[in-house]
Amino acid sequence: MPRNPQILLDNRPQGEATVDNFRLTEADTPALAPGQVLVRHHYLSLDPYMRGRMNDSKSYAAPQPLGQVMQGGTVGVVEESRHPRFQPGDSVVGMGGWQTYSVVDGDAPGMLRKVDTAHVPLSYYLGAVGMPGVTAWYGLDQIIAPKEGDTLVVSAATGAVGSAFAALARARKCRVVGIAGGPEKCAYAVKELGFDHCIDYRAHPDVKSMAGALKAACPDGIDGYFENVGGYILDAVLLRMNAFGRIALCGMIAGYDGQPLPMANPALILINRLKVQGFIVSEHMGMWPKALAELSDLVQLGKLRPRESVAQGLAAAPEAFLGMLKGKNFGKQLVKLV
Amino acid sequence: MPRNPQILLDNRPQGEATVDNFRLTEADTPALAPGQVLVRHHYLSLDPYMRGRMNDSKSYAAPQPLGQVMQGGTVGVVEESRHPRFQPGDSVVGMGGWQTYSVVDGDAPGMLRKVDTAHVPLSYYLGAVGMPGVTAWYGLDQIIAPKEGDTLVVSAATGAVGSAFAALARARKCRVVGIAGGPEKCAYAVKELGFDHCIDYRAHPDVKSMAGALKAACPDGIDGYFENVGGYILDAVLLRMNAFGRIALCGMIAGYDGQPLPMANPALILINRLKVQGFIVSEHMGMWPKALAELSDLVQLGKLRPRESVAQGLAAAPEAFLGMLKGKNFGKQLVKLV
């Protein structure tokens, strides 16, 4: 069996995460037991939720264990199989982690799924037609539940979730405004991703300025907000929400490194009779087939053309991950192994 | 026609509200036009929401206008009528304001409703079988939507809303824990109102201490919270909410006097996948008949025995109102005029 380079979580961040929290190592790939499948990973997915799991704090998911392979989504190709449903050469999506190979129990629910690469590129199953896409779908469809003509806002607009959100929102005939970092991302959001408008948060670094930009971009107020970031952007959005608005809380990345970030004026939730709801897409697996079908259709129709930031080789994963947390990526952040 | 003593809002509070914000005056009662009804008020309702309306800030309701009679709920008896549906002697509930008489258009929707005083005391239509009762019902039934065995918490537990909440929660076979100010109110909450436990917030004046008290009172965590207060109590509750918990935001009285009170850690909404929803009961009039029917039944069965704090005479209204905002009342705060 082949040798298996892998990246472990070596120690937990004190404040900001650094490359020294990770360790590159190599292990043997065990021989397959009956029912197991050997997958060679072509791409690793890097996602903001992983930062939360690096902390040893009570959260929805167990913390990433120390000294073990960083967990995460992967796409790849079956190299060997002792499971009747998987054949060498099959394209698969799974949770193989930050390593070159994984050995997977073919029957473990949700751990390995064959995918069609004739119409959708393999890497998209980690982004637009994968967990981030379904995340956008769930927050939009199940929490924000917009009606035609609503004004919707999403932060981290050019990321994997934001891109899918824009396409899904347009399919529902909503006006969709993004928030992203820098003029290049904002131009791309409008030109390529179908946003009606995109606000550069770097040009609006405080609540008052951001609230002003939101007022200009959303003259009819905001009916739905998809939150990937937290912090002062959420405070500014709250000032511009319409009565009966809905906020889907998906990420609060701004608060991962240290003290919790407060919400300045929660009374606005009452004053405007808002619904604010947190969710984790992996707890709603029953919705995935419906969401993936819509996302796959949008990709095949050319209405969802996600951008990818691709780092080369396993050793580049930690730096690419830390860069993504700072918004250095542009679109879905991947690591290409093959 | 009789002379009509009344209390106006004379000027707006700078920070804390004071008796000097109000002015007692007297007006003529106009002769009735066709379709109008003259009501003599027996009780005025004093409610926390009125404090919010004294500020000149953007909120769900227009601010209470300066120089006009303080608006509010009233129960009384028809003295004269030029409307076919109302007869002298009818008991009615309406929005007559802080005055002795009101002249009401009998056809104005929601402004005047005949009530049965054979089975429910007249004053209860301002409390347990009125707006506060329906408020408790809506937050519990439509937002918290508990299942049998859930642990529910309500602040301002011995107030009109809290009392009704306890009876409604018990009818749904939930464990219900109150938060109130002082040992006397807490003992009453448990002995008379049916709370399983009541926490004295004066003995727990900070987040950490309150969170500890909630942990002791709710060993299985909190599934639903009905918020009448805001501030540090909400922060403490957020620390003890179970996954998929629901928070109905009804009042944020703690923040009325000055700067908005922040929420310390909104990321908990995401971490525990909570739903936090604000509401105003007057926007859900379609639900009132169902809610009032259940509340009336609970009163008649002796399962909801609300307590009232009754101030005597119109001139006592401002002081009684300000005392209520500080929790000096015990149960529904009324002003008796007749």
UniProtKB/TrEMBL annotation, chains A, B:
One of its GO terms (molecular function) is oxidoreductase activity, acting on the CH-CH group of donors, NAD or NADP as acceptor. Keywords: Oxidoreductase. Residues 17-335 form the Enoyl reductase (ER) domain. The keyword tRNA processing does not apply. It holds the Pfam family ADH_N_2. The keyword Oxidoreductase applies. It comes from the Bacteria. Gene3D superfamilies: Medium-chain alcohol dehydrogenases, catalytic domain (3.90.180.10), NAD(P)-binding Rossmann-like Domain (3.40.50.720). Signal peptide: none annotated. This is NADP-dependent oxidoreductase.
